[in-house]
Write a structure and sequence with these properties.
about 475 residues, alpha+beta, Purple Acid Phosphatase, chain A, domain 2, eight-stranded mixed beta sheet, six-stranded mixed beta sheet, signal, PAPs_C
Length: about 475
């Protein structure tokens, strides 16, 4: 018999989970035979319902929320008014109360070449109760719009919580299918972890920033109701000196406020948050990360701070994958891997999610930290302290899928498939979580790959206890 534990009122045996985990590794080296149709994904037309502006003069639009502090008791609410600033306040109240409170925010604008943004509002609501449904209102008068969100449970080791995963989304028909499948997934994501490349506005002539506005209206149906945790990708850089745009990440930084100062970060491009039983570290593939840089120093100081007895699940988000067996973008993440992989192994990161490669891939638990250029140990090896690396850059953008793969499939690659889709990371308790990748197929989402995760920290504690005995 295994050790019994409970999830949601149901009893399970550790031995059962361990067996399923072994089954997941038995799929190592699998390249899916499923083949998507050829051709690039087409943009949805500008008159699509998903891009429609809300009725009324200066009505608030493009509403989205993200976590507003480090602990999960705050929410940053963001929206845009197109014609004038209007109200910069948010009215909010818990679902079980009629007492309404007001939070005041800031308003920013920016110009990009021949584009001038609307009035971008950011309002941080603080000191919310954990595990509570809140309603909130934007705007005033006859253009008031109402939304709601759920705050997470208080951080703790056995708190179940479900994260969605999407990357490289864009605004095509396939983007819409991905977001729809995520919304309709029977296992409901409570917070979305977004691994970079948002609107793809930079793919249009002169980085047409009106495409930031259409994308903001497109995602509102999800992002106004649950936090999207942002990671910046290469399509957010928007550095085009030939047209006078010399400030990297200008549209991204104006539109998406992030609580980076709460984790002592000096930039919104790298930061951390706690949410339920997870500790999430976001890093920037397109900012300086070498020795002595601000990002490097921050990560070096941040990892030892993680209290795995409180938040046992340690998740890292980045855009460019460290391990990928697809030809496109092959080894682009190698320098960051050399810098940060030893830390990921030392601190037993559970999983690293990335995008950039427009396909899906899951690795085995491997590391290449032995390699030092001269010793010849340049092949990744099995490492039980290493994270699983998952590439999920398959949201549906107009650049199409990456189908050309390196051959033969490397041993570290457990499963790969060139399809669009989304992921669900479902934390059950302090020791076990279930990940499923849901492929867009035939009008509905199909779970094409999955894996039971055994928490790295608690697994090492159990092994140490057995060794001592």
């Amino acid at each position: 018999m295994g050790i019994q534990f409970s999830v949601g009122g149901y009893a399970y045996l550790h031995v059962g989970f361990i067996f399923l985990g072994v089954l997941g590794f038995c799929e190592a080296g699998l390249t899916s035979s499923y083949v998507r149709n050829n051709g690039l994904s087409q943009d949805m037309p500008l008159d699509s319902d998903v891009f429609k502006e809300p009725p009324g003069y200066n009505a608030p639009q493009q509403g989205h929320i993200t976590q507003g502090d480090h602990e999960g008791k705050g929410v940053i609410v963001s929206w845009i008014t197109p014609d004038e600033p209007g109200s910069n306040s948010v009215l909010y109240w818990p679902a079980n109360s009629r007492i309404k409170k007001t939070a005041h925010g800031v308003v920013v604008k920016y110009t990009y070449y021949n584009y001038t943004s609307g009035y971008i509002h950011h309002c941080t609501i603080k000191n919310l109760d954990y595990d509570t449904k809140y309603y909130y209102e934007l705007g005033a008068g006859n253009v008031t719009r109402q939304f709601w969100f759920l705050t997470p449970p208080q951080p703790g080791p056995d708190v179940p919580y479900t994260f969605g995963l999407i990357g490289d989304l864009g605004q095509t028909y396939d983007s819409n299918r991905t977001l729809t499948h995520y919304e309709l997934n029977p296992v409901k994501g409570q917070t979305l972890l977004f691994v970079g490349d948002l609107s793809y506005a930079d793919s249009y002539p002169l980085h047409d920033n009106t495409r930031w506005d259409t994308w903001g209206r497109f995602i509102e149906r999800s992002a106004a109701y649950q936090p999207w945790i942002w990671t910046a990708g290469n399509h957010e850089i928007d550095f085009v000196p030939e047209i006078g745009e010399t400030k990297p990440f200008k549209p991204y930084k104006h539109r998406f406020f992030i609580p980076y100062k709460a984790s002592q970060s000096t930039s919104p491009l790298w930061y951390s948050i706690k949410r339920a039983s997870a500790y999430i570290i976001v890093i920037s593939s397109y900012s300086a990360y070498g020795k002595y840089t601000p990002q490097n120093k921050w990560i070096e100081n941040e990892l030892p701070k993680v209290n795995r007895t409180e938040t046992p699940w340690l998740i890292v988000l980045m855009h460019c994958p460290m391990y990928s067996s697809y030809v496109h973008h092959y080894m682009e993440g190698e320098t960051m891997r050399v810098m940060y992989e030893p830390w990921f192994v030392q601190y037993k990161v559970d999983v690293v999610f990335a995008g950039h490669v427009h396909a899906y891939e899951r690795s085995e638990r491997i590391s290449n930290i032995r390699y030092n250029v001269v010793n010849g140990f340049c092949t990744p090896i099995t490492d039980d302290s290493a994270p699983v690396y998952i590439t999920i850059g398959d949201g549906g953008n107009q650049e199409g899928l990456v189908k050309e793969m390196t051959q033969p499939q490397p041993e570290y690659s457990a499963y790969r498939e060139a399809s669009y889709g989304h992921g669900i990371f479902d934390i059950k308790n302090s020791t076990h979580a279930y990940f499923g990748w849901h492929r867009n197929q035939d009008g509905f989402a199909v779970e094409a790959d999955s894996l039971w995760f055994v928490n790295r920290y608690w697994k090492s504690i159990e092994e140490t206890s057995v060794a001592v005995k």
